[in-house]
Design brief:
Helix 1 (4-14) crosses helix 2 (51-63) and helix 1 (4-14) packs parallel to helix 18 (478-496). The two termini are 26 Å apart. The chain is globular and about 70 Å long. With 506 residues, it is an alpha/beta fold. The strands form three sheets. Strands 5-6-4-1-7-8-9-12-11-10 form a ten-stranded mixed beta sheet, sandwiched between helices. It has a six-stranded parallel beta sheet with strand order 15-14-13-16-17-18, sandwiched between helices. The chain has two domains: 4-262 and 479-496, Rossmann fold (3-Layer(aba) Sandwich), CATH 3.40.50; 271-472, Glycogen Phosphorylase B (Rossmann fold, 3-Layer(aba) Sandwich). Strand 10 and strand 11 (247-250) form a beta hairpin. Helix content is 47%, strand content 18%. The structure holds GDP-alpha-D-glucose. Residues 49-52, 54-55, 190-191, 262, 300, 302, 335, 337, 378-381, 384, 401-406, 409 line the site of GDP-alpha-D-glucose.
C-alpha cells in the first residue's frame, strides 16, 4: 500500500539531489484582503475548490518542493518575498509557492480564452463549441514563456524534476527542454483527450503537440485517453508511435505516454471523517438546512457544463413524478461553486441551474418542504465531509470527466460504510468504482431509476458495495498515483538513457 512515507522514501532515495518543481495554473493557496474600508488590510488565505490542487498538495508536502503558479489573489503580492515566493500552508509551512503574475489581458486570453473556451470544451466533447481565436493562442504562447522563465529561475541550472499540470501548459515542456535538456520533464493532463477526429479542427495542432512531445513522460487518467493521444500524434505528425509500449519517438527523443488514475489522500480523509468535529458539522448542517428525518441526496461540483448538473436535477424531477411516496421525504442538496464566471456559457449555466432548481421546487413545494436546496457557494472541506456523511446517496453525473474526485471523496468520508454512489459512466472514476450505480448521465430515466435503487437498496448490499469502493480508493490513493508516475519515469530513464541518468539519479 502506497503511503505518504513510502512516497517520501522514494523521493528521498531517487530524487534527493533534484529540485522538485511543480507547475500549475491554479495556485494551491490564494491570499485575499478581507473586510471593507480601513479593515480591508486584513489578509485571509484560502484553498480554492479544485480537484487538481487538492490532489497535488500532499505530494508537494512530501517532497518539500516548489510550486509555480499564477498569483491570482488581490493580496498575493503583499505576502511574497523579493523573488515572488511565499512559504505555505500558512499554519505549517512545508513547501514554497512561487507566483507568476499575469496582466488582465493575459488572464482573459490565455486562461479564459485558449485554455477554457478552446481546449476545455475540445477535450471534453460535451457539446459546447470551442472558440478558436488567434489572439488567445498568441497569449497562450506568451504565458507559457513567462512560466518557462520562472521555472528555469527556480531550477537555477541545478538538476531538477519539473512536473507540469494540465492543458494550460502544452508548450512549456518544449521551452524548458530547449533551454536546458538536462531537466527531467513530465506532464499530467487532468482532463480527457478527445479522439483524433475531434482534435483535427484545432488550428495550431502541430505546435501544441510538438510542445507536449518534449516531455519525458506524459500522463492521462485513462488508457483510453492515452490511445486517443497516440492516434492523434499518428495522424498529425511525422513520429514513430509504438502502440505496444505506449511510446512516441520523434527526432531521437522518446516520450512515454501512460495512464495514472489520480486519487485523494484516503488515510487523511478517512481520519478527518472520524473526528468529533465532523459529527458537530453534521449537526450544524441539519440545523442550517432545517432537516429533521428527511432522506438526503447530494451533488457537489464546480458550476461547470461538463458536470451534468441540469441533467441530474431533471432526473430528480422525474424520480419524484414516478415515485410520489418520496415527495416531502427527500431533499437533494446541490453545492454548485461558481467558476469561470467571466465566460458566457458559465454565467448562462448558473442562471439555467438556478431557474431549473426554482421551477422544480415550485412544482413540488408542499408545506415547508422543497426538494432541492441549491447552495451556490464555496463550502469548507470539513463541512463537505459532514455533508457526505449525511447523505443516503451522492450523484456524480458528469457528461465527461477526466476522473472526478468528488466520487472518491464521498467514498472516503463514509467511515460508517454506508451510502450509495450514483456515478456517470463518462467520469474516469467509473473505471475503478465499479460498485457504484453507474449511469449514462444523458439518460435521465436511467438516473431516476438509480435514485430509486439507491433509496431502496438493502443495507447489506449498500455496505458490501461501499466497503469494496473504500478498499479501491484506499489502495489507489494519491501517493500510489505519484509513486507510479515517478517510478515509470525513473525506470524509463534508467533503461533508455542508462549512462546519462545513472549519473543524474546517482
Ligand atoms: C479536474 C478534472 C479530475 C468542489 N466544491 C467545493 C470543493 N470542491 C472540490 C471537490 C473536489 C474538487 O473540488 C473537484 O474535483 P473534480 O475532480 O470533481 O473536478 P475538477 O475541478 O473539474 O478537476 C477532473 C481533477 O482535475 C483531478 O485530476 O478529477 O476530472 O476535471 O476535490 O471536493 N471543495 C471545497 N468547497 C467546495 O464548495 N472545499
Amino acid at each position: 500500500m502506497w503511503s505518504k512515507t513510502g512516497l517520501a522514501d522514494l523521493i528521498g532515495a531517487k530524487l534527493r539531489d533534484y529540485r522538485f518543481i511543480l507547475v500549475s495554473n491554479r495556485e494551491p493557496y490564494i491570499h485575499h484582503y478581507t473586510g471593507k474600508g480601513i479593515k480591508r488590510r486584513q489578509i485571509h488565505c484560502f484553498q480554492p475548490a479544485s480537484g487538481l490542487t487538492i490532489a497535488l498538495e500532499p505530494l508537494l508536502r512530501a517532497c518539500q518542493g516548489t510550486w509555480v503558479a499564477h498569483g491570482s489573489g488581490d493580496a498575493d503580492r503583499a505576502v511574497v518575498d523579493a523573488h515572488d515566493r511565499v512559504a505555505v500552508p500558512p499554519e505549517n509551512p512545508s513547501f514554497t509557492l512561487r507566483r507568476v503574475w499575469l496582466d488582465d489581458q493575459q488572464e482573459q486570453r490565455y486562461y479564459y480564452g485558449l485554455s477554457n473556451q478552446c481546449l476545455w470544451p475540445l477535450c471534453h466533447i460535451a457539446f459546447t463549441r470551442p472558440v478558436f481565436n488567434p489572439e488567445d493562442w498568441q497569449s497562450y504562447r506568451e504565458v507559457n514563456a513567462l512560466f518557462a522563465r520562472a521555472v528555469l529561475e527556480e531550477a537555477d541550472g541545478k538538476p531538477a524534476f519539473v512536473f507540469i499540470q494540465d492543458y494550460h501548459f502544452a508548450l512549456l515542456p518544449r521551452l524548458l527542454k530547449d533551454a536546458n535538456p538536462n531537466l527531467i520533464v513530465a506532464q499530467f493532463w487532468h482532463i480527457p483527450w478527445p479522439n483524433p477526429e475531434v482534435f483535427r479542427g484545432f488550428p495550431w495542432k502541430e505546435e501544441l503537440l510538438d510542445g507536449m512531445l518534449a516531455n519525458d513522460l506524459f500522463g492521462f487518467h485513462l488508457r483510453l485517453h492515452c490511445q486517443n493521444f497516440l492516434e492523434t500524434i499518428d495522424r498529425t505528425m511525422e513520429a514513430k508511435v509504438d502502440y505496444e509500449r505506449f511510446e512516441v519517438r520523434r527526432g531521437g527523443k522518446t516520450t512515454l505516454v501512460r495512464p495514472f488514475p489520480i486519487s485523494i489522500d484516503f488515510a487523511d480523509h478517512d481520519a478527518a471523517a472520524r473526528t468529533y468535529k465532523t459529527k458537530e458539522e453534521m449537526y450544524a448542517w441539519r440545523k442550517q438546512l432545517g432537516l429533521t428525518d428527511e432522506l438526503v441526496g447530494i451533488g457537489i461540483d464546480r458550476l461547470d457544463y461538463t458536470k451534468g448538473i441540469c441533467e441530474r436535477l431533471r432526473a430528480l424531477d422525474r424520480f419524484l413524478t414516478q415515485n410520489p411516496e418520496y415527495q416531502r421525504r427527500l431533499v437533494f442538496v446541490q453545492v454548485a461553486v461558481p467558476t469561470r464566471s467571466r465566460i458566457s456559457q458559465y454565467s448562462a449555466l448558473e442562471q439555467e441551474v438556478t431557474e431549473l432548481a426554482s421551477s422544480i421546487n415550485r412544482k413540488w413545494a408542499a408545506r415547508r418542504w422543497e426538494p432541492i436546496i441549491l447552495l451556490k457557494q464555496h463550502v469548507p472541506q470539513d463541512r463537505l465531509m459532514a455533508l457526505h456523511r449525511l447523505a443516503e446517496f451522492c450523484i456524480v453525473s458528469s457528461l465527461h470527466d477526466g476522473m472526478n474526485l468528488v466520487a472518491k471523496e464521498y467514498v472516503a468520508s463514509r467511515v460508517d460504510e454506508d451510502g450509495v454512489l450514483i456515478l456517470s459512466d463518462f467520469a474516469g472514476a467509473s473505471r475503478e468504482l465499479t460498485d457504484a450505480l453507474v449511469v449514462n448521465p444523458f439518460n435521465e430515466e436511467e438516473t431516476a431509476q438509480a435514485i430509486r435503487q439507491a433509496l431502496q437498496m438493502p443495507e447489506e448490499e449498500r455496505r458490501r458495495r461501499m466497503r469494496k469502493m473504500r478498499a479501491v480508493v484506499e489502495e489507489n490513493n494519491i501517493y500510489r498515483w505519484a509513486g507510479k508516475l515517478l517510478s515509470a519515469l525513473l525506470k524509463f530513464e534508467f533503461t533508455a538513457h542508462e549512462q546519462t541518468t545513472t549519473a543524474a539519479f546517482g
